[in-house]
Design brief:
The chain contains four helices and no strands. It has 74 residues and is mostly helical. The radius of gyration is 17 Å and the shape is elongated.
Length: 74
């Protein structure tokens, strides 16, 4: 199951009155992740949140600020 599907399921379960802890257990995600998803959906709406979520996953990750070789010397 994709994360987008899990976000939609999370929202549907939340709207039915299921506690966040139980949603997290059922979807196999951390409770804080569920809390962040619900907070984001409340702010931007489900479609808006999913658009932002997909866009955030497309970008390239930032490189480490400290090179691992330099860190090993310290």
């Amino acid at each position: 199951m994709t994360n987008e599907t899990l976000v939609v399921l999370c929202w549907e379960l939340y709207e039915q009155g299921m506690p966040k802890t139980r949603i997290a257990r059922r979807l196999g995600k951390h409770r804080e992740t569920i809390h962040l998803w619900i907070k984001g959906i409340k702010g931007a709406g489900l479609i808006g949140f999913l658009d932002k979520y997909k866009q955030a996953k497309k970008g390239e990750r930032k490189k480490r600020q400290v090179d691992p070789i330099v860190k090993r010397w310290a």
